[in-house]
Amino acid sequence: MAAAYLLSHSSILPKTLNLTPNPKSPLLSKPFVNLYKPLTPKRLTLKAVVSQNNSTSKTATLEPETNNFKHCFSKKEDGYLYCEGVKVQDIMESVEKRPFYLYSKPQITRNVEAYKDALQGLRSIIGYAIKANNNLKILEHLRKLGCGAVLVSGNELRLALAAGFDPSKCIFNGNGKLLEDLVLAAESGVFVNIDSEFDLENIVSAARLAEKRVNVLLRINPDVDPQVHPYVATGNKNSKFGIRNEKLQWFLDAVKAHPNELKLVGAHCHLGSTITKVDIFRDAAVLMVNYIDQIREQGFEISYLNIGGGLGIDYYHTGAVLPTPRDLIDTVRELVLSRDLNLIIEPGRSLIANTCCLVNRVTGVKTNGTKNFIVIDGSMAELIRPSLYDAYQHIELVAPTPSEAEVSTFDVVGPVCESADFLGKERKLPTPERGAGLVVHDAGAYCMSMASTYNLKMRPPEYWVEEDGSVAKIRHGETFEDHLRTRHSNHSFLLAAVSMAGEIRNVLDSPAADAKPNLQRTYQVVVAATKEMGIGKDGKLPWKLPSDLTFFKDITLKTSNPEKKNAVVMGRKTWESIPIKNRPLPGRINVILTRSRDFDVGTIDNVLTCGSMDSALQLLAMPPYNLSIERVFVIGGGEILRWEVLIFAARSEYVLSHRDTLNAPACDAIHNTEIETNIECDTFIPPVDTSLFHTWYSSLPMVENNIRYSFVTYVRVRRTASDTHGQNNDTKSNNGKFEVQDFSFLPQIIFERHEEYMYLRLVQEILSSGNLKADRTGTGTLSKFGCQVHIGLSDREEGDLGPIYGFQWRHFGASYTDMHADYTGKGFDQLADVIHKIKNNPDDRRIILSAWNPSDLTLMALPPCHMFAQRSADMGLGVPFNIASYALLTCMIAHVCAFSFPVDLLPGDFIHDLGDAHVYCNHIEPLREQLLKSPKPFPFLKINPQKKDINSFEAADFELIGYDPHPRIQMKMAV
């Protein structure tokens, strides 16, 4: 049984136990008593003590008198308010000074575990009501805990899918579901509740459009009084929700008439919210199973009973006895089991409300007539429940007040220009000082999800306390720039229109334009194309490559600055080719290019429309987009990548560039999934102009669904279009020179895939956190033990340390005299043996090459530092040489062995296991200098194709193409 303390008391307590507070109890002086010893976290941003409420702990039995009401927010003896052991005052001082929501992640876990414990023995779905709180991080956490989702709009469905919820555990409710949202629901495979005649008609239409059969439930209005506020009552006969029982037969006949579109799998009712009497659930369940019996008699296979409606919580913080999840489930358990049903419940408030508070700062205290007011920076805009429902939510100060502070009765109000702007009335509180922290408790449900921008108060940020006591931001607060951005759609249409009419200069020079836009906003192209630059067939992608979709998402979605987003620019046909459930592409600004004046996407968030590429670039170069967008990606389709682009030339003139979008001067980089397999296409784009772009990164070829492809990133070189006029495609003439030396403008996943960063990051770790050790040379080292670097074999140099490695590879066991002796035919030739086995028995598990020969260690000037596992790694001089030499050796082996295979034998990955990775103290400054330099693109290694014997290679058989190193950094060898 989980020690959940979900609502007011633990679900393990006997139902007959009287939990009325004893006025003589000494515990009343400590409002929330901690039952367990606090744990000290290992490392926290804020000084904190982790809460005793460990979400994984289980309590078998507790004496009733020790089971006192407690809360994830509690005041301790020092008078400060804590959240899971973290002082709220410390959090306030560490975040931006504005109202914010603060959650306890462990409390969310405990609440879910209480429901899961109560549901043991039943087939069930905990359908979290997203309307209660739609924070994506919270949704992801609930999904990981095993919850499903209850949805009431298309956007909530999109959000649930983005959070990773299993569609088979999602239920789409609502009395006015839109057709386009129902199409998405049908495509996704979620349950849909039928609420009315027109709702059924729309579901049938959606099923036909999606070409899917929809699993539906009938939402029956049971006419049960939940005895709650009328605004949150949904199950009485005059409610707008559900169908009355007298109409049930009509709906059953209608479902029978559409067997290809509808499959009736269950019955649903919803009672309301803040319910405090579980007998109401029992009454509703009795009615519902009777309806299910009647429906089954007509041949329907009903397997789900969905009872919606939420338990109340103790908003007054009195420790009142309220129903627990077990109380709720036990009232319907036998009914559910007797009909062999799956039970779906729809908690929202009871999962999330008591996990959160709204943290505010006191602006001042005033008195008018007989009323005392505490004015805070929070308001009805952030938390409207008290104003809307006349709801009570507990309020208290974050920190102790001076002893002389007078306790008075206050109305707690906000700065919004409404008399209804209050968070609490007639609250007895010590008179706070200006700037003091004040919290409104139990604000996790129907607070942030109902927040508004009334009076242009921007929606607040959200944070939570993790299990280890650390604090993380889980939603950024809205800004005024965000508000401006959502008001710019008309401006984008204006730019599009004048662009098409050739009147850009008139608009930009008009009084309405405060400043000329920076028309130099650059972009990067993301595309997948064949060798002939084919990108599509019959309006669709002619290949299915899941890894490519992941690559696309990683490139276009991730930003280095969490406050910003990327923009993706696409044509109308590309937009329409995206499945409805996936558009707009989440987490990005979607810019749709279209010349059609009739095309309208409505008011979808994060979607803009423009008439051309140049108008889109102008728009994105102006506020607020130039401040809120990190990178711009053009993602297709064919017509867009062939468009001519207006560019800003000298003397503020506009000239028409004859460069296509792909190779235009504004294009910084091209990320191409190069399809090597021959595939028929009917849509093509121009080739990458190699006089303008040079390869910066290339993955190893891979095969997926019988299609061979690789990821290649091209970056613009120094030569411009005016230099070459597109005539020169000789990559050698560019000498590997790029427009810039800093490549951080590339997507992080590409920027960091440069294999040298793996080496440099390890160097940085050693310099920052390595342990100082003595060594055999007396130089001293900074050391870090147990490291691994995974490097693709595109680093290629040759090098040889003499007889140490080569001798053991070719003459293992031979008696060594000196480096000039002839060892031909002596010892065991490991390298020849490895090559023979690869050619003749590639599955042999004894293909091993070792340089470690204990019998020769005393004869070696320096024992081998590396095999495939390197015992001693000198990060300054040794490791770069080790990587290069083994990479070269592997490429040589692949080259000579390839003649025995029908296809090219390509080198794979070099996985470098490092034991003692260290930096010599006299290498620290040179390595710091190296860390300041950006790695350059690797050269290409060309091996003489005529050489087929490992013994026949000479230095002239290897050519490095495009080798452009940084100036030498000198390091002394420690001996």
UniProtKB/TrEMBL annotation:
GO terms for molecular function: diaminopimelate decarboxylase activity; dihydrofolate reductase activity; thymidylate synthase activity. Belongs to the Orn/Lys/Arg decarboxylase class-II family. LysA subfamily. It comes from the Eukaryota. PROSITE patterns: DHFR_1 (PS00075), DHFR_2 (PS51330), ODR_DC_2_1 (PS00878), ODR_DC_2_2 (PS00879). PANTHER family: DIAMINOPIMELATE DECARBOXYLASE, GROUP IV DECARBOXYLASE. Bifunctional enzyme. Involved in de novo dTMP biosynthesis. Key enzyme in folate metabolism. Can play two different roles depending on the source of dihydrofolate: de novo synthesis of tetrahydrofolate or recycling of the dihydrofolate released as one of the end products of the TS catalyzed reaction. Catalyzes an essential reaction for de novo glycine and purine synthesis, DNA precursor synthesis, and for the conversion of dUMP to dTMP. This is DHFR domain-containing protein. Its cofactor is pyridoxal 5'-phosphate. Pathway: Amino-acid biosynthesis; L-lysine biosynthesis via DAP pathway; L-lysine from DL-2,6-diaminopimelate: step 1/1. The modification N6-(pyridoxal phosphate)lysine is found at residue 131. It catalyses: meso-2,6-diaminopimelate + H(+) = L-lysine + CO2. Keywords: Amino-acid biosynthesis, Decarboxylase, Lyase, Lysine biosynthesis, NADP, One-carbon metabolism, Oxidoreductase, Pyridoxal phosphate, Transferase. GO terms for biological process: dTMP biosynthetic process; lysine biosynthetic process via diaminopimelate; one-carbon metabolic process; tetrahydrofolate biosynthetic process. InterPro entries: Ala_racemase/Decarboxylase_C, DAP_deCOOHase_LysA, De-COase2_CS, De-COase2_N, De-COase2_pyr-phos_BS, DHFR-like_dom_sf, DHFR_CS, DHFR_dom. SUPFAM superfamilies: Alanine racemase C-terminal domain-like, Dihydrofolate reductase-like, PLP-binding barrel, Thymidylate synthase/dCMP hydroxymethylase. The lineage of its organism: Eukaryota, Viridiplantae, Streptophyta, Embryophyta, Tracheophyta. Residues 522-716 form the DHFR domain. One of its GO terms (cellular component) is chloroplast. The active site is at 417 (proton donor). HAMAP family: LysA.
